[in-house]
Amino acid sequence: MAIRQIRYLGDEVLRVPGEVVSEFDDDLRALVKDMFETMYHAEGIGLAAPQIGLSLRLCVLDVQDDDGSDADRLALVNPEVVRASRETDKSTEGCLSIPGLEEFVTRPATVTIRATDPNGEPIEVEADGMLARALQHELDHLDGVLFIDRVSPLKRRMLLKKWKKSQEEDRG
Ligand code: NI
Known about the structure:
Layout: H1 26-41, E1 46-48, E2 58-62, E3 73-84, E4 88-93, E5 103-108, E6 111-116, E7 122-127, H2 129-141, H3 153-171
Antiparallel strand pairs: 1-2, 2-3, 3-6, 4-5, 6-7
The protein binds nickel (II) ion (NI).
């Protein structure tokens, strides 16, 4: 297993839609392990393949349930939203590819996702709350969409300004 390098805002790969995964082999399962390791190392709750430079429709999530069970540890291959509630929910989001930035994002409150697991077995996940939000955020990554694209133009400009400033500070 290995920790992969996370790509940051400005890296073109984050804007490229992922390709459908068609091989469910040991390489895929090893990649999923790396993605979990990378996500935990970065203390994130979700990570999509484009965030480690791979244009693939693949993401991992670990959104802790209230009961602290492992039930929400998910590796989703070729996931799709098959149902989204009309009811929306507004809450803050951040992203491992845009560290330090957070903003309120409005999204459907409940979603149903269909995907396959890394062995090619079908999975269906119905989620609300934090998991619903995290799923939609990660699926956006597979289409080259970031949470900053889902806020008002004014908020987006403010976020980009803040990001630019933080990058300049990092460089010294
Ligand atoms: Ni993200």
